[in-house]
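Pilot study result, target chain (251 residues):
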Amino acid sequence: MPEVEIRNLKKSYPPPFSWRWLVGKREAPREALAGVSFDIAPGEVVALIGPNGAGKSTLLRILTGLLLPSSGSARVAGLDVVEDRPRSRAVVGAALSEDRGLSSRLTVRQNLAFYAALFGLSQREAASRTAELAERLEAKALLERRVRTLSTGEKARVILVRALLHQPRVLLLDELTRSLDPGAAVRLRRQVAQEVAGSGAAVLFASHDLSEVEAIASRVVLLDRGHVVAFGPYQSVKPRADEVFAKPAEA
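Predicted structure:
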């Protein structure tokens, strides 16, 4: 049974208010996702690629429960992300771009303890998982620092630790290695591919780094203007991806 099931998923955003509405010239809604469908098996690492505005972040936010779809369905670990929203959010770990969920005045350890409690972990479990993940993800030296003192790359490590605290069945990552130096990026890719997916979790990550995609993804979803235009192994998707990325932004 797939760990992630997406069926004909659609999402539209209303147009921003404009003075043109006063004369009856209202713009059409902007369609971010236009009938997206695919599955991810347990233990599979799938990459989500496409130009800016293709719908990648919208899709990830729907799977986390942060956005509601306009129509269609999405399930994680057998749970509908709309009808079973609280339970589905509990089985998902997410490290998304523009994440503002850390309290800047608290230390990293205090932030992680707060989220561990939300995930239902005991204090002993929280301490054990925090120590284990901080060691593996090179964040041990950050635990006693206040979040406001961290660099962007350091915050990215902490957000990933937070996403893995409760051993999620589905891991969602948006631009995972964008803020990391090349060496750290390589090591983190290895962690995701070998350890996270190796535990049976399904991983869906968005990236603009095609070398990263080729290195760790078993299959690739290519989005363009809200449509899945290719889905399969990297080498089979690459020719179509080259066409999509070569198009002018306004085309």
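One observation from the pilot: The domain at 1-91+171-251 is CATH 3.40.50.300 (Rossmann fold). A full batch analysis is planned for the follow-on phase.
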